């Protein structure tokens, strides 16, 4: 990084999404001047894009990060707590699976636009932070520390000593290093894509389903989920192999498919055909790359024009959304950078190396957990074996508080490093294998008996 330019390096953040606006606020509060560039117009004025992840589940890690900038309470006022999964059968039956052993802990449904607006307001109000909307990064030359932004007024150059790339899964900043020697990069598309749909409030202005749950319709090949919104609607997301998502061409085909597979939901979706036609299909990608930190090469002796680059949030590690952790995890990145900067007395090169070293194993771990959870949500959540396993885990959690904690709780209700979760699960499973087996068998027998009674009654 350039030397001899005085104590304050020029810091640029690319992308004012969830990670970028949080990171700008954290750095500004540390007295670091930051320029934050965003390709879109100000979303607080322009509104959200149609059909693009309208709400998301915020849990312990995101809340801990928001706490650091004093926003936890403000954000929680905008959020709706969801205490468990409500599973919808094809025949219209529903069963609630609490997320925690005592049934009281919740993940929180929040409007992405409101969360982003709150974070942007905080960045705006932080001395030293300048936000420039309508600036799309098109080129990044690390050797010269030069960024070029596309704007309505033409290309705008900008110089930086430190570039923090928070520009999402398809990061333009990352493209600048993709062909560097030693850069390992993988972008894996899940066979399934998604389409967002709506369950509006009822005519009486009420929620059409229980708002204290995340609703899941597991159907094997396809799956739909729904999260509540503050206006008493639900945003539904249908996950389905991409080619299938595109296979329903007419309104009649859409309605026919939903009546067969999601009959209880279709009754609550008066704009289903229109939403299906107009909302774009999104894709789901896992990005794995390393290193996250890059350094430009000086052009000549004493040049000092080179810059440091670090990838942050989805730009470093986009994951599939089935554990509801992408944004939570990106916010944890920001906290780690801030903490390392404090620990290293503002030495950016060391702080960013440590950030990468500490975060990479964790983001690798949550990427795998998220892929596993897709199979669990889509195929297993409604099976008697799965329900029995959950019941036995909750029993163990109540009996052995602190000594047995389920994987879901460790991911969503704790800030235990993701990379430590698998090892902890193995250890506690070994220690409790006998008890867990006995309880699972008992719970399984009870679930089978219940299913038998229900089948007899039909
Ligand atoms: C369907 C779906 C559901 C999800 N649900 C959840 C959930 O429940 N919980 C959860 O924690 N996560 C969830 N996620 C993941 C979450 O949305 C992402 O992990 C999170 O948004 C990443 O934040 P980010 O700031 O890194 O990137 P982004 O939110 O993508 O922000 C990137 C920003 O950079 C800007 N930008 C892009 N390119 C440029 C450029 N060239 N120049 C300037 N600016 C640029 C963009 O406009 C954007 O503002 C979900 C994702 C999807 C797709």
For the biggest β-sheet, the strand order reads 6-5-14-15-16-13-17
The Cα radius of gyration reads 24 Å
Global structural class = alpha/beta
Report the CATH architecture of the largest domain: 3-Layer(bba) Sandwich
Largest sheet: 7 strands, mixed
Number of strands: 19
Low-confidence stretches: 1-5
Task: Offer a few descriptive terms.
42% helix, 7-stranded mixed beta sheet, 19 strands, globular, 6-stranded mixed beta sheet, alpha/beta, 458 residues, D-Amino Acid Oxidase, Chain A, domain 2, 3 domains
Please provide a written account of the structure.
This protein has 458 residues and is an alpha/beta fold. The protein folds into 3 domains: 11-81 and 109-187 and 286-377, FAD/NAD(P)-binding domain; 189-283, D-Amino Acid Oxidase, Chain A, domain 2, CATH 3.30.9; 384-457, no CATH class. Helices cover 42% and strands 24% of the residues. The chain has helices at 18-29, 43-46, 60-68, 72-78, 112-124, 172-175, 242-245, 251-261, 263-266, 272-278, 314-317, 326-343, 348-380, 384-399, 407-412, 418-457, and strands at 11-14, 34-37, 55-58, 80-82, 84-88, 94-98, 107-111, 129-132, 136-141, 146-151, 154-159, 162-165, 184-199, 213-219, 222-228, 234-241, 282-290, 293-295, 308-311. Helix 1 (18-29) runs parallel beside helix 12 (326-343) and helix 8 (251-261) packs across helix 10 (272-278). The radius of gyration is 24 Å and the shape is globular. Mean pLDDT is 91; it is low at 1-5.
């Amino acid at each position: 990084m350039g030397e001899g330019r005085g104590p304050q390096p020029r810091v640029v953040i690319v992308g004012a999404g969830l990670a970028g606006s949080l990171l700008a606020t954290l750095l500004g509060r540390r007295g670091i001047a930051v320029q934050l560039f965003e390709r879109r117009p100000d979303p607080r004025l322009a509104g959200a894009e149609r059909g693009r992840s309208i709400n998301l589940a915020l849990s312990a890690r995101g809340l801990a990060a928001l706490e650091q900038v004093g926003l936890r309470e403000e954000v929680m006022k905008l959020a709706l707590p969801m205490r468990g999964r409500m599973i919808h059968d094809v025949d219209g039956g529903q069963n609630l699976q609490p997320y925690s052993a005592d049934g009281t802990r919740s993940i929180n449904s929040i409007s992405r636009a409101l969360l982003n607006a709150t974070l942007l307001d905080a960045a705006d109000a932080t001395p030293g932070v300048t936000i420039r909307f309508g600036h799309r990064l098109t080129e990044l030359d690390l050797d010269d520390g030069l960024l070029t932004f596309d704007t309505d007024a033409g290309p705008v150059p900008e110089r930086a000593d430190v570039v923090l790339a928070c520009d999402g899964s398809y990061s333009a900043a990352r493209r600048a290093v993709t062909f560097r020697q030693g850069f390992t990069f993988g972008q894996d598309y899940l066979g399934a894509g998604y389409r967002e749909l709506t369950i509006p409030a009822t005519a009486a202005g009420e929620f059409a389903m229980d708002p204290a749950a995340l609703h899941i319709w597991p159907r094997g090949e396809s799956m739909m989920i729904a999260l509540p919104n503050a206006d008493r609607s639900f945003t539904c997301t249908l996950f389905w192999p991409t080619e299938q998502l595109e296979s329903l061409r007419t309104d009649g085909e859409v309605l026919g498919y939903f009546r067969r597979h999601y009959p209880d939901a279709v009754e609550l979706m008066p704009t289903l055909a229109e939403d299906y036609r107009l909302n774009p299909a999104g894709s789901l990608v896992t990005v794995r790359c390393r290193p996250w930190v890059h350094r430009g090469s000086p052009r000549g002796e004493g040049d000092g024009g080179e810059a440091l680059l670090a990838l942050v949030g989805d730009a470093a590690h986009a994951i599939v959304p089935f554990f509801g952790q992408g944004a939570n995890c990106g916010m944890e990145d920001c906290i780690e950078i801030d903490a390392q900067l404090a620990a290293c007395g503002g030495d950016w090169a060391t702080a960013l190396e440590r950030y990468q070293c500490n975060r990479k194993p964790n983001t690798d771990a949550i990427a795998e957990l998220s892929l596993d959870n897709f199979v669990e949500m889509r195929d297993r959540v409604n099976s008697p074996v799965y329900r029995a396993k959950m019941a036995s885990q909750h029993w163990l959690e109540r009996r052995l508080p602190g000594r047995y904690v389920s994987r879901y709780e460790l991911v969503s209700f704790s800030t235990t490093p993701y990379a430590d979760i698998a090892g902890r699960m193995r250890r506690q499973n070994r220690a409790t294998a006998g008890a867990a087996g006995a309880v699972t068998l008992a719970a399984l027998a009870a679930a089978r008996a219940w299913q038998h009674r229900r089948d007899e009654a039909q």
